[in-house]
Design the sequence.
């Protein structure tokens, strides 16, 4: 129906109808046809990655992904290629000019230039982050927050605080290779827990692992896991916290994608259900505002003092001008507007890339259908080996992230992760190139 007709039918303003239509477009329910109006969008078949990645937890294993990760990361920063293998924030969606003004203002503050910003870090930014954390259901004070150099350092510090060399860390499978790198660097072992590509870590499998293995910590990304985009339900987050509290096993939560759910209502962090200080919460502003600033933080619960000490031993101070500039930005009213734009645009780009993959890749290809973030997990027919084909794709000008990067056990040989953040004509051509390459490998 037309905007005017709906406005009259439900006795609401035309502005309300337009906003409702926009929200339904963002969610892929409606599509706009030029000079015709709004229509219910055609739904593709529900094609997703397997609902369980392995039948039960395997034995803990050491991690050796470092060399492969470095090679893929290097290629994904080479502008000679179409780079679909990263998980990089879209530059056109960052509030660069506004941030530059805030940094310029911070640089006039003499203290930020002349005094070391010792841990826990810039007070103004910690105050802003404490306020921001309320949207995730966290009620923390600035004193509870320790600033870090991105989320990666936060995760590493938290792992160091609760584990020693040789300890076992339970993780989702597949999982972000940056987490595997941190575990490898610290000499820890990994126990891969089966995960659902929609709902995240299997709690039944986790409980089985806790009964059978000496798990020292659990590391999860409840909101929009990289690479699958899985998103744990609120009930499962609460249950996860309760299970680990009862088992007296600390939970390290990576919430770096928490603000990028396509739905305007943000899901509560798992840490919001913590009542005993057993959850170490980690996040950053790299995925929404400024990846180059490397501004992350942790709220480490009862491990706060240990993490604080480790941070001080790791690096004496943090970049105070950048932190103060970011505080100025967050004190304004721009962040919510930036997030609305990013959520809407990432939802569109992911949806369009997913359609292109299903069209161009070989029959039998299965693709995740995330509710947030900007990466897609692709499962090809099992005879396609993405790591073996990586060099040929590179020769054809396209790079991606092969599936084995996301597993300590080198699983997912027929899978890959693709980045939809920069979706456009160039990326569309690259998907066609990959589709032809994968089809040729099956011939």
Sequence:
């Amino acid at each position: 129906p037309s905007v005017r007709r709906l406005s009259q039918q439900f006795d609401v303003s035309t502005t309300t109808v337009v906003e409702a239509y926009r929200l339904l477009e963002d969610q892929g329910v409606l599509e706009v046809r030029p000079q015709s109006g709004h229509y219910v969008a055609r739904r593709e078949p529900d094609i997703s990655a397997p609902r369980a990645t392995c039948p039960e937890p395997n034995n803990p294993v050491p991690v050796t992904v470092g060399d492969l990760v470095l090679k893929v990361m290097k290629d994904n920063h080479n502008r000679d290629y179409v780079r679909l293998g990263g998980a990089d924030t879209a530059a056109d969606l960052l509030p660069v000019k506004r941030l530059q003004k805030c940094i310029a203002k911070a640089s006039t503050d003499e203290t930020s230039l002349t005094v070391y910003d010792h841990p826990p870090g810039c007070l103004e930014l910690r105050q802003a982050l404490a306020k921001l954390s309320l949207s995730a259901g966290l009620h923390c004070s600035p004193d509870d927050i320790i600033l870090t150099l991105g989320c990666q350092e936060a995760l590493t510090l938290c792992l160091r605080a609760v584990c020693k060399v040789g300890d076992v860390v339970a993780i989702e499978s597949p999982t972000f290779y940056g987490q595997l790198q941190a575990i490898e660097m610290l000499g820890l072992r990994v126990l891969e827990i089966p995960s659902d590509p929609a709902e995240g870590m299997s709690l039944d499998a986790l409980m089985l692992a806790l009964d059978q293995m000496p798990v020292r910590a659990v590391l999860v990304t409840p909101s929009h896991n990289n690479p699958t985009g899985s998103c744990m339900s609120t009930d499962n987050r609460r249950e996860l916290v309760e299970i680990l509290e009862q088992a007296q096993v600390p939970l390290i939560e990576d919430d770096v994608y928490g603000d990028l759910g396509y739905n305007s209502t943000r899901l509560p962090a798992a840490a919001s259900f913590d009542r005993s200080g057993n959850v170490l919460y980690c996040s950053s502003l790299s995925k929404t505002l400024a990846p180059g600033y490397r501004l992350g933080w942790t709220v480490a619960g009862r491990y706060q003092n240990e993490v604080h000490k480790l941070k001080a031993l790791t690096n004496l101070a943090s970049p105070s001008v950048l932190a103060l500039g970011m505080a100025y930005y967050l004190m304004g009213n721009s962040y919510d507007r930036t997030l609305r734009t990013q959520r809407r645009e990432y939802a569109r780009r992911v949806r369009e890339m997913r359609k292109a993959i299903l069209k161009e890749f070989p029959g039998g290809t299965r693709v995740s259908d995330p509710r947030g973030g900007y990466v897609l997990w692709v499962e090809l027919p099992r005879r396609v080996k993405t790591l073996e084909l990586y060099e040929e794709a590179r020769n054809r000008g396209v790079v991606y992230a092969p599936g084995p990067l996301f597993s300590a056990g080198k699983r997912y040989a027929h899978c890959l992760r693709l980045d939809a953040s920069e979706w456009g004509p160039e990326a569309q051509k690259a998907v066609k190139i990959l589709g032809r390459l994968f089809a040729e490998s099956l011939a």
User: Anything to note?
Assistant: The chain has three domains: 3-40, 63-92+339-442, 94-335.
